[in-house]
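Data deposition worksheet. Section B asks for the primary sequence of the deposited chain exactly as it was used as input, without tags or linkers unless they were present during the calculation. Section C holds the resulting structure in token form. Section D is free text for depositor observations; keep each observation to a single sentence. Incomplete worksheets are returned to the depositor.
Section A, Depositor: J.P.
Section B:
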Amino acid sequence: MKRKKIGIVLLGVSMISVLFSSVRPQEKELEGNVSLSGAWALYPMALKWAEEFRRLHPRVRLDVQAGGAGKGIADALAGVVDFGMVSRAIHPAEVEKGAFAIAVCRDAVVPTISEKNPFLSQIIEMGVKKETFDAVWITEEAKTWGNVLGTGDKTPLHVYTRSDACGAAETWADFLGKRQEDLKGVGVYGDPGLAEAVRRDPLGLGYNNINYVYDAKTKKPVQGIMILPIDLNRNGKIDEEENFYRNRDTLTRAIASGAYPSPPARDLYLVTKGKPEKKTLIEFLKWILGDGQQYIPETGYIALSPEKLAEGLQKIGAR
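Section C:
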């Protein structure tokens, strides 16, 4: 009897040992804080990414603040935030200071006018040539809407630009072969501010990131604002292949195909000071360049090419 009892005990110990040896320690749940600041252009997309990433990792706290690309790059390099949101090319001087940039999606800047512009139908039919934009924002030779449309009309032109260091202004200036400081006009802070200034002024002309001129729900231009079409082939009219401003989807498809020029189409970046080492930051970037790309079209942006995504993953050491 004793032998049987001992045998049963030993068998029980053996089974327990096998059971415990088959259990693997669970990976620790991702946790920590992730802070982002910067470009108004990337702000809506970053909010969506933060919301979805937190669903997957509820112990990760994400803080997203807008304020312009200039603030984003400055905050990142100063170590104030983990990621700077930047909507322009990274300058060599910023790279020398440690800027480590990963492209995460694409969008574009578009010229804008008020829906109440007295010449609206003519503008939509004719569009505006690139050299005319140069006369508006750079040389200031275009002072009236007659100058813009090539007529003798003396109605004054009200030109607006951004007062804050930002990717939209830098990108629009790049389209004209210049820098943001070369743009003339009444300075207005932020994308929402510039959009509102143009919306309220029937004689106004400005520019905005696309997510501030198209309604997120209807995907049509925000009430009171119209996108001024660019006469890309310079033939004095907007041909069907240039007419892609009707809604957000038609424009984003034009950006993705290259029909809308680059600039003002551009990549948007998340920037850190040096290559990120914190696990939470690396996992956030990996997710954005992977599953996070699925949220880009619905938020009004353009996904990166597979090649660019692979390049980003390799850059952060994920491949």
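Section D:
The chain has a mean pLDDT of 92.
The chain has two domains: 32-107+266-315, 108-257.
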